[in-house]
Structures are given as C-alpha cells and as structure tokens.
Design a protein that fits this description.
alpha+beta, Thrombin, subunit H, 36% strand
Length: 263
C-alpha cells in the first residue's frame, strides 16, 4: 500500500480529528494501522506453561525504494538477545513466522531506540500484513504539526492471552488523536480523556493502563488532500509509553534511510 502525499496544511486539526473519529473513517483508519503492524515475540514453543511467551513488542513493514524493512525498537531487539543468551532453547516469531533477528538485522541505534531487519514481500503477504510503500523522492516525510491528527496501532503485552496450550492471542490496541508536541527528533502524543471517543465500540481504555509491548509500532500522520480525500503518511516509530502521564513517545520517521540505516 502507498500513501498519498500532502502538505502540512493538509493535516486535520483537533476538531477535524475528532470528527474523523466520529465518522466511519475513524474505524477505517485504525484498521489500516492494524494492517501494517505485527507482534514480535519470543519464548519456548514446546512449553504449555507461562514461559511460552517471555517477551514481546511490535514491528511494522516499510519499503522506500530499497529492501523491505521490518522496523522496531532497539530495546525490543536487545530484549530478544538477552533472553536468547539466558535461554538458548527459545525462538523468536513475527506472528507464525519464525525468525532469527540477528541474521536479519540491518542496523541498530540504541540512542534513538530504533532497529531494522530484512524481510521479503512474500513473507509479509503470508502474514496477511501490508508493506507501506513510500516514494523515494518524497522521503523523508514531513513530520506532523502540533495539534494535528496522528494515529497508531500496536500489541501491548497486557493484551496477550493464552487460549490453550501453545496457542496465544495478541490483542491489538489502536488510537487516533493529535500530536501534543513535535521536536527535532521525537513526537509526543498525550491522551486527551476529555475528548476521547469509543470509535471501535470496545469501551474506553482504563486510566494509566500499562502499554509495554507497543514499542516498535508505527505512528501515522493523517493527511487530507485539497479534494477532501483522507490518507496517511508515516510519522514515527513508537518507543516509549509513560503510564503515569499517559504520554506516547515516537522517534521521528526521518531517522530512517531507504536502505534501513539511520540518518
């Protein structure tokens, strides 16, 4: 899937973002976010006990005229490496796909907390996920403005449930709002409970809910063209959640290069 491009003025305001949430497009755009992202997790596949899943995060897929990249957080990769060192019997998966993150690794940046791995379009299609196709000559993307629309979806570990035996379900968590602040290297989204809307009909999220596992999910900017068509572009990579203050931190997308290294 390819996004449409747009200027900064095309991004919806707070009131417009709220109107999107109330419309059918609100549900649609959150479903779009879910199609680009997948859970990445590790554990003991032979176990039926609590060690079946030892850790997890989120990963999304993008191509910028080069290889298909799986983008996640450096601390997610580090969590896998530490777990593997302690438990050589464990494996890492992206949904049903068993992977070795070390052999797929393209680049890591611990300071900015981002990492990239190599995938193929065939692998992503088999997972029933989408690869976000960015236009190379329009990369890097413009960041969203403060007070303009952004949305996201990921897989927090408090929504990982064991169905039976080695069968696990990863519940998705999605939201749409506005960017609270945009810095030179990060974007902050703060929950505005005064204006929260239950777009998906699942009830509003609990206050100060722990969302570990969202790390590595994409943050998207909502774009509205002059003709009124709504679309999206990549804004950032989610790397931290503040439970106390309900703040979602994302590294800006312009850190990514087309080959998977970082600017």
């Amino acid at each position: 899937m390819t996004s449409h491009s747009g200027s900064e003025a095309d991004l919806p305001s707070r009131d417009e973002a709220e109107a999107i949430l109330r419309s059918g497009f609100g549900r649609e755009i959150l479903n779009v976010a879910a199609r680009y992202v997948a859970p990445i997790f590790w554990g003991n596949p032979a176990s039926t006990e609590d060690d079946s899943v030892l850790g997890n995060g989120s990963i999304f897929f993008i191509q910028i005229g080069g290889p298909v990249l799986g983008v996640t957080c450096d601390h997610v990769v580090d969590g896998w490496l530490r777990a593997k060192q302690a438990r050589p019997d464990i494996v890492c998966q992206v949904l049903d796909l068993v992977i070795d993150p070390e052999s797929r690794l393209i680049a890591r940046d611990p300071d900015r907390d981002v990492a990239t791995m190599a995938f193929t379009k065939e692998e992503i299609a088999a997972l029933d996920k989408w690869v976000f196709t960015a236009v190379p000559d329009k990369w890097p993307p413009m960041p969203p403005q403060e007070g303009k629309g952004v949305f996201f979806a990921g897989f927090p570990n408090n929504r990982v449930t064991q169905i039976e035996g080695r069968l696990w379900e990863f519940g998705i968590y999605a939201g749409l709002g506005v960017a609270s602040s945009v810095g030179s290297d990060k974007i902050v989204y703060q929950y505005d409970r005064q204006h929260m809307i239950d777009t998906l009909g699942l009830g509003l999220p609990p206050t100060n809910e722990f969302l570990g596992g969202m790390s590595g999910a994409a943050l998207w900017a909502v774009v509205q063209s002059e003709s009124g068509l709504m679309s999206w572009r990549l804004a950032g990579v989610i790397y931290e959640w503040s439970t106390d203050f309900e703040l979602l931190y994302s590294r800006r997308a312009d850190v990514l290069r087309s080959d998977g290294t970082f600017s």
